[in-house]
Each structure stands twice: as C-alpha cells, then as structure tokens.
Structure prediction request, 167 residues.
Amino acid sequence: MVNQTIAEMFEKIADILEIQGESPFKVNAYRRGSRVILEVDEDLEILMKQDKLADLPGIGDALRKKIEEYIETGSMKKYEEVTSQVSEGLLDMLKIQTLGPRTISLLHGQLGIECISDLEKALSDGRLLQLPGMGEKKIENIKKGIELYKDSMDRISIGSARRKNAK
Prediction:
C-alpha cells in the first residue's frame, strides 16, 4: 500500500521545512496530510482512481497533486527537492529521540553542526550552553538521546536474527 510511503515522505518534508525555518503553516499542512493518509483505510491509488482524494480532510490541491504525482510516476519532485537541500547528517540527527527539527535548526544555524559527531564535539566542549534555551537538563537529555540512538543501531530485528540462525 502506497499510503505509508507517501505519509513518510510528507513527514520528512515537514521535518526538513521546519529545519529550514519555513512557515509553520506549510510545515503543519504536510504533518496533517501525513496523519490523514495514515488514518485512511483505503489505498490512495484506489481513491485517486475514484477521484476521491479531494474528499480527504486536510488534503488540499497542493498535497493532492503530490500524491497523484507519486502514484503516477513513483517519485515526488517536492520530496526530491527538499531532501537534496539538507545533508544526510542533519536527517540522521532527526533519529535522536530528544532532538526535534527546531533544535536541529538552531544547532545547525548557530553552531554549524552538520551531523551527530559534530553534535558530540559541541556537547563535549560546552558550546551548546551558549545557545538560547539550552540548559543542563536539555543537554543531558540530548546525551541520553544519542546513547539510545547508538544502542538501537547495534540491535537487529528478531526476523533478521532468526534468518541468521537458520543458515
């Protein structure tokens, strides 16, 4: 089902737009669109064929056209455009539970942090304390978030483990 893929794409677009400091209205439109798509029981392809995408609440013309573009071509220009504007390192930082797009934007804009290793250096040399809204508690939470992220990278899914043991 294409719904999950498009919802994830809209969520990633929203994250990147928020990192870039885009209008909160635009960011929220993509987030709302993502939520609506995940709640739809029917496949978006079927809804498109029935000309019912416009009936979905929160899906305006702009998002509808992006959904149709993806279904028809397998790609979405807006997604390609925004993901090409942000480094993979910044996107990886979104995987840290305690970091949101606004904090990443602040870290990137004020300190030039591009990736998790840059963030770790800034944490160790105390540069994060210079930033507005960045206190000891927040810094401690970021450190814990990095730890959790790194721990999760060492894990493998149970399905992968079973396949390895079966060989």
Remarks:
- The chain has ten helices and no strands.
- The domain at 88-154 is CATH 1.10.150.20 (DNA polymerase; domain 1).
- The chain has two domains: 2-84, 88-154.
